[in-house]
Structures are given as structure tokens and as C-alpha cells.
Design brief:
Largest sheet: 5 strands, mixed, barrel
Helix content: 10-25%
Strand order of the largest sheet: 5-6-7-9-8
Strand content: 25-35%
Structural class: alpha+beta
Radius of gyration: 20 Å
Number of helices: 5
Distance between the termini: 30 Å
Order of helices and strands: EHEEHEEEEHHEEEH
Number of strands: 10
């Protein structure tokens, strides 16, 4: 019988990034050969291989977490910056619309708190090809797109080492990244606060998932400088913004995924209008 910890589906897994991080921390990963075949019987067929892949990913993730040890922040009580971070909670998924990424990029947003109760926003950028449970066609390609997207792409390409944009200090660029996570896809005349399914480019969320990421920027905002954010319906409470790339996101239960659009084609959804997810968010 599988352990409870073994039960779960990877909503995001980047094999390349996982192996890059393993190499950086000196962890040798054996090649995961995957055997998949079908057994044909008169009354049934059995497909093998998917379960073995999930088990291999779980074992690989456990080894990386063990190797990272205290390098991976889990509570954000330590001073910024951190190099890696991991946690458990609600993970929101959306497309990231940028200059180069087009419709092939994804972003994940996680909101948590430090021990003092201050807000921590984790914004992770990756590839839609590594996402399981959503497709690019699940989101309506309409709504506001940030002009700061190229600055975020530069941050990702340089792993936080370069900034030649007009958002030329760490705090300003971090606020722009969080704005993309929370407001990309806004439509004129609509109230989106607390209703992410009404925005363009949003995909859905998993409300009980484990995640692990490599961090490229970790910024604590100056309260005196950013006091105006407290009047912003989306950005109020922003304090620490952590930006990076996900290694994985793993659902802990099979019934925690919420898709904002019910699977209809993009053209048909435009005729029907956006619909709230059939599974209520907690």
C-alpha cells in the first residue's frame, strides 16, 4: 500500500531545472528510464509506466529537498535574500504574456506569511509545457498585459543579475512582477477583486500543493516608500516579494484542482462569457 505522502500528482515538473539544481548542489541523479507498455487481456487492458514516473519524480524531489536542507527557506523568517524556497499551500496558475514567451510561459502565485504575520508573495515563472492539468487554450487571451513584462523576462534570463529596464531598482521591479501575477488580464469595467476567473490569462489553482523553487530575486519593500499600496485592492499588504522559477508543484490530493474555464474552446467561451469554476475555492 502506498504511503499517504506518495499520493499526489505533479501539477508542474521541470526536468531540466530539477537536474540543473541537482548538479549545482552536487547531487548525482541517475537517469530515470521509463518503461510503458500495455497488457492486452480479453476483458481489460492495463497501462503501466505513468505510476512509475510519478514515483521516480517523488523520490527525486525527496532527494533534492534533503540535499538542499536549510538552503531552502520554508518560513521566510530569515533575512532576504534566499536562494531556494519551498512550502505547501494554495498555488494559482496563469499564462505569462511577455515579449518573447508569448503563450508558452506560465506563472504561479503563492501567498504566505512570515512568523511576524507580514505578507509574503511568491511569484514563479516557468513553461506551460511543464504544467499538468491546464492548457494554453484554457485561458482567454484577452485583457491587460504589463509593459514591464520584458523587465521580468530579463530578470529570469539573467537569474536576477541584470536590470537594464526603466524599473531599475529591485523593489520597483518586484512590485511589477507581483502586479502581473495579480492583475494581468484585467478587462475594462469589470470588478476582478477576489474573482481571478474573470481575468484573461488565468487558468486556475490547486488549493493544497507542495512547491519548490529556485529564487532569483527576494525583496523586502520599504514601508515608507510604498505606503500607497495599502489603498490598492490587489497589492495592499505587500511586504516581501520573492521571484523565481518552479522546480515542481505537487498536489497532495486528487480533488484540489480548480479550473476556471470548463474546457470549452476559446471561441465558444467568448460567446458564452467567462464562467466561475464549478468547484468552489476554499
Amino acid at each position: 500500500m502506498a504511503r499517504q505522502a506518495d499520493v499526489g500528482r505533479y501539477r508542474y515538473w521541470s526536468d531540466r531545472r530539477v537536474r540543473d539544481v541537482a548538479e549545482e548542489v552536487g547531487l548525482a541523479l541517475e537517469r530515470d528510464w521509463q518503461w510503458s507498455f500495455t497488457l492486452g487481456l480479453p476483458m481489460a487492458q492495463f497501462q503501466l509506466g505513468e505510476g512509475a514516473r510519478a514515483q521516480n519524480r517523488l523520490r527525486t524531489a525527496e532527494r533534492i529537498v534533503k540535499k538542499l536542507g536549510s538552503l531552502a527557506a520554508t518560513d521566510f523568517d530569515r533575512p532576504a535574500p534566499v536562494q531556494y524556497a519551498r512550502g505547501t499551500g494554495r498555488v494559482a496558475f496563469a499564462q505569462f504574456v511577455g515579449t518573447y514567451a508569448s503563450n508558452d510561459a506560465a506563472l504561479c502565485h503563492i501567498r504566505t506569511q512570515c512568523g511576524e504575520g507580514r505578507q509574503v508573495d511568491v511569484v514563479l515563472f516557468g513553461s506551460l509545457e511543464h504544467v499538468d492539468g491546464f492548457r494554453a487554450g484554457d485561458a482567454i487571451d484577452d485583457g491587460w498585459v504589463s509593459s514591464a513584462a520584458p523587465a521580468i523576462e530579463e530578470l529570469l534570463r539573467s537569474r536576477g543579475t541584470e536590470n537594464t529596464s526603466q524599473w531599475d531598482d529591485d523593489q520597483t521591479r518586484a512590485v511589477e512582477a507581483l502586479t502581473i501575477a495579480l492583475q494581468q488580464g484585467e478587462l475594462p469595467g469589470q470588478d476582478h477583486e477576489g474573482r481571478p476567473w474573470t481575468r484573461g490569462y488565468t487558468l486556475g489553482h490547486d488549493h493544497q500543493a507542495q512547491w519548490c523553487a529556485e529564487i532569483y530575486a527576494d525583496v523586502v519593500l520599504d514601508d515608507a516608500r510604498w505606503w500607497r499600496l495599502q489603498d490598492d485592492p490587489f497589492l495592499h499588504g505587500a511586504h516581501r516579494i520573492v521571484i523565481g522559477a518552479p522546480l515542481w508543484v505537487r498536489a497532495l490530493r486528487p480533488d484540489t484542482l480548480v479550473r476556471y474555464q470548463g474546457g470549452a474552446s476559446g471561441r465558444f467561451r467568448r460567446l458564452l462569457g467567462r464562467r466561475q469554476a464549478t468547484v468552489p475555492s476554499p
